[in-house]
Write a sequence for this structure.
């Protein structure tokens, strides 16, 4: 079963503002290079590299915002972070799941009602499913051995 990621206002502001600024920087540097504001060939080359990196990072931020969701399968939680990146956490690897309001980095787009999944002997993954109670109930049903601190 699939669950959308809960999207909070703080994450929305951060992702959309930073992504937009990076894309504007990319376009500005590209236009400056096309109009030949600079004469040093190495400077022009570095500005093109920075422009392309800013564009790629900005697009990636928007793509994660649009495509992040979680899937609970028979034996695992699958975190779909983008069309190119998925993370699978098998139930037998999970030690505990704790509810928290934390600013830890992870594939979560909200600062409230986050779940910290402790797995593989100490690795933490932070997620924020939209239908929080339904998500937790489904995991409890699928794997009753996991410790929950909700």
């Amino acid at each position: 079963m699939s669950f959308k990621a809960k999207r909070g206002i703080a994450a929305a502001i951060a992702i959309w503002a930073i992504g937009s600024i990076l894309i504007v920087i990319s376009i500005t540097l590209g236009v400056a290079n096309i109009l030949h504001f600079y004469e040093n060939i190495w400077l022009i080359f570095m500005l093109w590299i920075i422009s392309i990196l800013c564009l790629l990072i900005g697009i990636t931020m928007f793509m994660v915002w649009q495509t992040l969701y979680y899937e609970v399968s028979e034996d695992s939680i699958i975190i779909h972070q983008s069309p190119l990146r998925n993370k699978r956490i098998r139930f037998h690897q999970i030690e505990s799941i704790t509810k928290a309001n934390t600013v830890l980095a992870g594939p979560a787009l909200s600062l409230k009602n986050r779940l910290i999944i402790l797995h593989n002997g100490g690795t933490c993954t932070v997620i924020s499913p939209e239908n929080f109670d339904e998500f937790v109930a489904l995991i409890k049903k699928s794997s009753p051995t996991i410790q929950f601190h909700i």
About this structure: The first helix runs from residue 9 to 34.
